[in-house]
Specification:
4 strands, single chain, Rossmann fold, alpha/beta, 33% helix, 7 helices
Length: 225
């Protein structure tokens, strides 16, 4: 893949979006666009390498299954439904549910739904193993209580438990920012997200973006001035 420190990608600010039209004319793309690999040497490697990875059996199976779920459930299925249909369409029988203890009720309901779709559900809570935050070298100022036992989240442990259970597809439900990164890093099975944690916005992070011009405009300096 690309060498560390080289290049810069700013797709979020692109007003052209020629990549979705299938155009093969270089002049249709901004100079910074990574599609211009044919003209810029090393930049072109990422595209060829990505296409090569899609030829691997598991990657092709996951990609084609995602396309089937996307088209089949478009504007009809909720994400909860999409996850179940994806697993079933991909031939997966055992799924894992890594959840935050603060969302234990939601986890119970999600597990019940998946089980109702003929999937074997293996669920594991964030504080599995009952590890003290002090044992993980978390300083007192970064705990909710300076003294006494305080259960630490154990996302690596969650991934390990699900691997021991032999899950084929893992679902993350409400893990903390950073803990989710560790879970995905150590998950042995492909993984997806049912819900991202946002304690302020009821686990709907995009609400801050949708209200960028009103209630949350203070998060976007310069946008509405």
């Amino acid at each position: 893949m690309k060498e560390s420190g080289k290049g810069h990608s700013v797709c979020a600010g692109c007003e052209v979006q020629s990549c979705k039209t299938g155009s093969e004319r270089m002049e249709d793309y901004p100079e910074w666009c990574w599609y211009e690999g044919e003209k810029n040497g090393w930049r072109g490697k990422w595209r060829a390498e990505a296409l090569g990875e899609y030829q691997k059996e598991e990657n092709r199976r996951l990609y084609k299954t995602a396309a089937r779920v996307e088209s089949g459930g478009y504007k009809k299925w909720t994400r909860l439904q999409e996850i179940a249909e994806f697993a079933r369409a991909a031939g997966m029988k055992k799924i894992g549910l890594a959840f935050c203890i603060g969302l234990d009720r939601e986890a119970e309901l999600a597990a019940r739904y998946f089980a109702g779709r003929e999937l074997e559900v293996n669920s594991v809570v964030c504080c599995c193993g009952s590890i003290d935050k002090a044992e993980l070298d978390v300083p007192p100022e970064d705990r909710f209580a300076a003294e006494g036992f305080e259960a630490g989240c154990n996302p690596i442990g969650q991934a390990k438990v699900l691997a021991e259970c032999g899950t084929e597809f893992n679902v993350m439900l409400g893990l903390c920012v950073g803990h989710d990164a560790l879970f995905f890093k150590y998950s042995e099975a492909p993984a997806t997200v049912l819900a991202a944690k946002d304690r302020v916005l009821g686990h709907n992070p995009l609400a801050a973006v949708y209200n960028a011009g009103s209630y949350y405009r203070h998060l976007f300096p310069g946008k509405n001035e």
